[in-house]
Design a protein that fits this description.
The chain is mainly alpha-helical and 108 residues long. Helices cover 78% and strands 0% of the residues.
C-alpha cells in the first residue's frame, strides 16, 4: 500500500513538474508555483503525521519517531517556502515603471 502511494505521489510530482517546465518563462507565475508547493508540502506533512500516529499505535516507537521527524522537517520547509516573497505580476510592472527614465529605458 505504501509503495502504491509513493508511486502515485512520484507520478503526480513528475506530471506537475513537466507541466511547469512546459510553460514559457513569460507564462510562469511564481506565486502559483509557491502555492502549489505549499499545498503539496502540507499534504506530505499531514501524511507523515498520520504515519507517525499509526506507528505509535502499533507500538513501533522508532518508526513513529522517524515519521514525526520527517513531518517536522516538512513543516520547516513549509515555513521557508511561505517566507519567500514573490512580487505579484501587476506589482512588478508598476515597479519597473518607477525606474524608467524619460526614454523608457530602465535606469540603473
Amino acid at each position: 500500500m505504501t509503495q502504491l502511494h509513493d508511486l502515485r505521489l512520484r507520478l503526480l510530482v513528475q506530471q506537475e513538474s513537466e507541466r511547469i517546465a512546459g510553460n514559457s518563462p513569460a507564462e510562469l507565475d511564481l506565486s502559483v508555483v509557491q502555492a502549489r508547493s505549499l499545498c503539496w508540502l502540507a499534504l506530505l506533512a499531514e501524511a507523515h503525521e498520520d504515519q507517525a500516529t499509526d506507528a505509535e499505535r502499533r507500538g513501533d516507537v522508532e518508526q513513529a519517531m522517524g515519521w514525526f521527524a520527517d513531518a517536522m522537517r516538512l513543516q520547516d520547509a513549509i515555513q521557508v517556502v511561505s517566507s519567500i516573497e514573490i512580487p505579484l505580476p501587476i506589482a512588478a510592472g508598476t515597479l519597473e515603471a518607477e525606474y524608467e527614465d524619460d526614454d523608457g529605458l530602465l535606469a540603473a
